[in-house]
Amino acid sequence: MINALVDKLCAQHSLEEAEYARLIERRTDETASRLAQRADAVRRDIYGNAVFVRGLIEISNICKNDCLYCGIRRSNANCSRYRLTPEEILDCADEGYALGFRTFVLQGGEDAWFTDERLCALLTALKARHPDCAVTLSLGERSRASYAALRAAGADRYLLRHETADRAHYETLHPAEMSYDNRMRCLRDLRELGYQVGCGFMVGSPYQTAAELAKDLKFIETFRPDMCGIGPFVPHHDTPFCGESAGTVELTCFLLSVIRLIYPPVLLPATTALGTIDPRGREKGILAGANVVMPNLSPVSVRKKYELYDNKICTGEESAQCKNCLNDRMRSIGYEIVTDRGDIRKPY
Ligand code: SAM
Ligand code: FES
Fold it and tell me: Which residue's CA lies nearest to atom 3 of ligand 1?
């Protein structure tokens, strides 16, 4: 019965929402390893054993939002705030370029200092220095006009996790002033403006059940994102969800395999959160079907401050150490880090 669902997913890249829920609820270790094998095979068909790297620059932990799960939410008075200057951001990118990175991800809270004007100037400077690099932004919800201006200034990709495709669940994770509809509007606008777009969600977030996850999977099936960031929810001690349990490596890896099979070309990171809850979490994620890793290029002096959740890894190492460590980890499981832009390949 469950094997029939696996076969259907592999053949059709699609299941009914209720079937996704059943697949999740009735999964066994055997189902997980069958799915991982199939996911690995379709990924190898498209990308071989390549794992793409993206250099992550955490540009600011100042945020106007108050997401209940997030360690840098505005209500966390214990968070020590910082903002990198444009020069510091460009220095991080230069250092990354010398290490071989050809994609930079600028991520941060929704910090009003980063106006369109300042961001466009930064993008123009970054693209002038490194025209062969892709720039990904992950700066939250902005207006369509803002996304259009940033795209025109050189942004290639945008990561904006949808967080959950279930409206009621969204409302349990966010304060009333945040809106599910606006999050989804942003994703549509980004797609229409020609960005390569990434959505995603946390695995094991509070109140999440197989029914919510099935909606996430159906959303991914219909939206067909270029990138999809999924990682376990990890509690942060200074948030309302401090007492909740973390998501598991097992379910995260299972879902990575399912997502690879839903949309074979998708760029799928093995996230830092996965590496945080298990020392071999990122290796396990790659073996389950992920094909991207995102070493940290932020200055070591600010890394601990970008604390989305407790015990985040890679906060003490220099950029070169992070890259070498991931190189070794990927080699140890038979994969090779490649240093091109790592654009999506769409044979479909
Ligand atoms: N402000 C931007 C945004 O909203 O997309 C980017 C920064 S935000 C911190 C990036 C992602 O971190 C969120 O989309 C969320 O899924 C993830 N995140 C936040 N808190 C987390 C936690 N406690 N555990 C795991 N992931 C978390
Ligand atoms: Fe804004 Fe987390 S609440 S980045």
Answer: 140
Q: Measure 62 CA to ligand 1 centroid, in angstroms.
A: 13
Asked if 229 and 7 touch (Cβ cutoff 8 Å), the reply is no
Cβ(106) – ligand 1 distance below 6 Å: no
Q: From the CB of 51, is ligand 1 less than 6 Å away?
A: no
pLDDT per residue over 41-100, tens digit each? 999 999 999 999 999 999 999 999 999 999 999 999 999 999 999 999 999 999 999 999
- For the Cβ of 275 lying below 6 angstroms from any atom of ligand 1, the answer is no
Provide block-wise average pLDDT over 10 residues at a time, the chain (348 residues): 95 98 98 98 96 97 98 98 98 97 98 98 98 98 98 98 98 98 98 98 98 98 98 98 98 98 98 97 98 96 97 91 93 94 84
Diameter over CA atoms, the chain: 57
List of domains in the chain: 2-338 (3.20.20.70)
Q: Tell me the best of 54, 69, 111 to mutate to test the pocket of ligand 1, counting ligand atoms within 8 Å of each CB and taking the most.
A: 69
Residue nearest to atom 4 of ligand 2 (CA): 109
The residue whose CB lies within 8 Å of the most ligand 1 atoms, and thus the one to mutate among 195, 308, 311, 313, is: 308
Provide the pLDDT for residue 319.
Answer: 87
Question: pLDDT value at position 339?
Answer: 85
Predicted pLDDT of residue 317: 85
| pLDDT at 14 (0 to 100) | 98
Degrees to nearest 5, angle at CA 59 with 57 and 60: 140
CA atoms within 13 A on the CB side of 24: 26
Question: What pLDDT was estimated at residue 151?
Answer: 98
- Residue bearing the CA closest to ligand 2, atom 3: 73
* Ligand 2 first shell, C-beta below 6 A: 63, 65, 67, 70, 72-73, 109-110
The whole-angstrom separation of Cα 9 and Cα 15 is 6
DSSP string across 128-185 = HH-TT-EEEEE-----HHHHHHHHHTT--EEE---B-S-HHHHHHHS-TTS-HHHHHH
- C-alpha 10 – ligand 1 centre gap (Å): 30
